[in-house]
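ok trying this again, last paste got cut off
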Amino acid sequence: MAIPSIDSVEPFQTKDGSTIRELAHPAWTLAVNQSLAHATVPEGLETDEHYHPVSEEIYHFTAGSGRMRLGEEEFTVEPGQAVVIPPGVVHKLWNTGAVALTLICCCAPAYSHDDTVLTGR
């Protein structure tokens, strides 16, 4: 059984431009219907606006500060908050703070580059 720690997982850049470390995924853990990742948006940067036709996501912010667009709404995000992102809803993050904006992201079904559609905006 795989029980990864964040320091043992190689980071990679997702299609939206954020850097993630997958902590659980059906491809290599006992997870069946979801994935869990630690994501980072460096200070001064932002993700590309995108949506997921199939996956629902939940973001739980753990450090830093920023802004988020979810559909037509924009709001401030900070540690301790959780945001549910339904399938098909456009979203984007901006790091507006002086340190990395970090979050835990749960995707159901599990994250896939193929389920990420960039809007080009």
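PB: full thing came through this time. The mean pLDDT is 95.
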